[in-house]
Amino acid sequence: MSIINRFTNILQNAVEALAPQASSIEEFTFHWKRITNYYIESADEKEPVSRTNIPAHLQQMLDILIAEELELIEEFGSAENQTGPCLEHLLHQNILETLTTFGRGDTPPGMKQQVLYFATTLLGKIKQPLLPHVNVHKPVIKLVAICGEVMAAPTEKEEVHFLCVVCSKIKLDPYQVNFFVQTPTLPNIKRKSPNAIEQIAEELDDISTKESKRDEFLLAEGLLNLTKSPDQKIAVKACEGLMLLVGLPEAKASKTLVENTQLANFICSLPLTLDPADVESTEAKWGLDSYSAKEDKQAFTGKRQLRSFLSFLDFIDTLIEESHRVIGSTLAKAIKLHVFDKVLKDLLLATNENTALSITAVLTKTVQDCKSQFIIQQITQFMLGEEANAPEKKNDENGNNVRQTLITRCDHISDELAITTLRLFEVLLHKTDKLAIENLISRNLVSRGYVAPVDKSIETEDEPISEASNSAAAEPEFEWDDSDVIPKTNPIIKKEPEITAEQLADPKKRLEHMVNLFLGVVPENLRSSYEQEELGHEQYLRDAHTAFRDGLKKTKRYNWPAKVDQSVEPNSDEFFPGSFTSMLMNKLSRVLDQPYDINLQVTSVVSRFCLVPHVYLTEYALDPLITPKSSSQTLYSTLQNVVKVLETRAARIPNFRDKLVSTRKRLIGMEQDFDNPEHRTLLEGVIVLEEFCKEVAAVAFVKHHAASSGIENLTV
User: Fold this and answer.
1) In the chain, what's the furthest Cα-to-Cα distance?
2) Separation of alpha carbons 376 and 364, rounded Å
3) Do 448 and 459 touch, CB atoms closer than 8 A?
4) φ/ψ (deg, to 5) at 288
5) Burial of 591 (0-12, 13-18, 19+ CB in 10 A)
6) In terms of domains, do 555 and 605 share one?
7) Number of neighbouring beta carbons within 10 Å of residue 650
8) Would you say residue 537 lies in a domain?
9) Are 397 and 514 in a shared domain?
10) Does 532 map to a domain?
11) Residues 154 and 230 in one domain
12) N or C, where is the chain less crowded by C-beta within 10 Å?
């Protein structure tokens, strides 16, 4: 600006100060004329707007409009349906449209920032609805189109605030979203149509399979682009704007949100050499994902990319949780299509061990961190296939290839990949998703094919029932307290008298006997903790009670059977428990020959398996009193077979008991760890087996006690 122009402005401002007080409309039109005169008189298009009086005049116009509305509120009690002369002038003279033209051209330089600020303040401060006015929503749409166009633009702050204000206004009146949709193919949604959401969800299902233009919902696209901003505050603000949009009944908006999601890009950017332990320990929440250069130098390779993925995953998860349930479900389906099926699947099924290991760990972390049931359902379908009601057949090659690959990898030659895949299944079972439980477990159990058919030609008498084929086992006896799930006293190793069939008719006696059978699986002479038998039981019981109670809450709506249908007679066909259950029982049967880390993970998965609140699973895994088919591999029969092998092998090892006790002390840090002690794998396997039997006994007690006492059904 020249010295003469500056002097002229100073002189004119002085004249304005001395002039008589003008009316508000006169002041408003005066300031607007001063702005338009600049474009007529100015010859320097490169002069920044900050060196002109335009910002001051725009601010004066805003102040006048806000003051005018306050006067209307004082006079009429509300500004609704009351428009003052200044606002009327702004609407009728199409002032916002003219300003938008100046802003889109960014003339003078910096004008875009000023116009965005003006529009943001106007929409945010004026209480009466402005968007329905054609001379407001048309220029607003044009401003929306220029937001998020340039990465790290100097106007990002103004852009994201403007978009968020527009979103907040639409949230108040969702019908206004139709102003921002740029396609004639949208359904005509009426404001109070009860079926609008469902119609849109159906349309979104159709749309997701077709090619589409990218300019359908620029409001969402602008916010999505701003979520990629290197400025964390801008990115978080953009995410907040998207949160306002997800509840809107608008199919194209939902489609755009999914198609432009960065999840797929984040997955592609992950290094394929991530350590599962590093993935497990990494935490990130959207809006809180600050990461310094110092941390980057100290962290493992790929931590920044992993945190970015987890942070955006948390945002998408929250986004779907906050959205309307029908739209949320449809969004999750699109996430499966665009992210899991198109990107993650090939990486997960890769033959390269490092790639498979890294992506399996990332998938496990994804399942673990997601709260939205919609996403969990879609991940389950991705892993296991669509809903399957028919029992799984042995050696069925027509199943889901992801499912088959993951189950097979639990027996992989690489212990690390096997452990990571088992951990994935443990986390999935912990989510207690209906499809996961039915697909992996219950569909092969509901026929009760694991129970031997009753030979009705044989008359049974009320004879004593011994300790289920393991005469060497000593059974701990509990003192029960019906008022609580936890027994009053810890179990004490004590020989229990033989029990009769008549006594088993008493639910309490039957429960005691079943629990004691599990506690007595490992014979006394092969136990390492006989002197400290009271340790650990109460904690196992408390953990089982908490986990089972949580599972009941999750399965309440599944409509699973409340009790085993005893009228269904088992057939004589060979029983197949399903490839997943069969794999678990086979892994458990090798507990004496597998590395310690493998055994810990296997028993952890089986424990989670046992906690699932399904009555047929409970009978199959936790009722040692059923008579299984000779070909059936139940949990109890598997443990018995392991102990038979153990007795034979232990007899060949001198001082076996002392070595076992020493191994326990070494594992808990009471003794020095030697590099490769003799019979290390076997001894560590016995310790795991011993503790696992206690854990299973606790689960059996909690589930059977809940059923027999009426505290809760095994399913709700």
Assistant:
1) 120
2) 11
3) no
4) -125, 15
5) buried
6) yes
7) 21
8) yes
9) no
10) yes
11) yes
12) N
Closest among 394, 400, 424 to 412, alpha carbons compared:
424
Same structural domain, 222 and 281? no
Are 219 and 287 found together in one domain? no
Percent of the chain surpassing pLDDT 70: 78
The string of pLDDT tens digits covering residues 607-646 is: 999 999 999 999 999 999 998 888 888 999 999 999 999 9
Residue range of the domain that includes 165: 22-185+213-240
- Picking from 365, 370, 346, the residue whose alpha carbon sits closest to that of residue 303 is 365
- How many Å apart are CA 41 and CA 47, to the nearest integer? 13
- Tell me the average pLDDT of the chain: 81
CA angle 291, 294, 300 (to 5 degrees): 80
Measured in degrees and rounded to the nearest 5, phi and psi for residue 10 equal -60, -45
CA distance 57 to 630: 91
DSSP state of 153: -
- Number of helices and strands in the chain (H, E): 32, 4
Contacts 24+ apart (CB under 8 A), 352-355: 352/272, 353/414, 353/417, 354/272, 354/273, 355/272
Number of domains present in the structure of the chain: 3
Both tokens of 139, joined, read 């220029």
- What pLDDT score does 539 carry? 86
47 phi and psi angles, rounded to 5 deg: -70, 125
Any domain includes 498: no
Same domain, 336 and 429: yes
- If you search the block for the tokens 């990571």, which residue do you land on? 420
**By C-alpha distance, which of 559, 553, 574, 571 is closest to 615?**
559
For residue 108 the two structure tokens come to: 């003078």
pTM: 0.78
- The residue whose two tokens read 């994935």 is 424
Q: What is the pLDDT of residues 319-368, one digit of tens each?
A: 888 887 777 887 888 889 888 998 999 999 999 999 999 999 999 999 99
Residues with Cβ within 8 Å of residue 159, at least 6 apart in sequence: 116, 147, 148, 153, 222, 226
Sign of CA dihedral 594, 596, 601, 605: positive
Three-class DSSP category at 13 = helix
